[in-house]
Specification:
With 75 residues, the protein is mainly alpha-helical. The chain is 51% helix and 11% strand. The chain has a two-stranded antiparallel ribbon. The longest helix is centred in the middle third of the chain and has 11 residues. The chain is globular and about 35 Å long. The mean pLDDT is 91.
């Protein structure tokens, strides 16, 4: 099970480039790229709020819970 980040999907739907989104939310392109490529380990609620405002979407549009994948982290 894992959380998937669908930032790339929402950006494509809104026809928004990484640079434009970066300027709109005040987050570096490098940090947004980490999120977009699914390599982020965490996301702040404040960042999620900024992304939702800029992309005119809900948090559920950006995040999805995948129950079919295996958990890579050992607890």
């Amino acid at each position: 099970m894992s959380i998937e980040i669908n930032l790339d999907v929402m950006m494509a739907k809104r026809k928004m480039r990484l640079k434009t989104l970066s300027e709109a939310v005040g987050i570096t392109e490098a940090n947004l790229s980490v999120l977009k490529n699914g390599k982020a380990k965490a996301i702040r609620f404040s960042t999620l709020e900024l992304l939702c405002r800029a992309l005119d979407c809900q948090p559920g549009d950006l995040l999805a819970f995948d129950t079919t994948g295996e958990d890579d982290q050992k607890r």
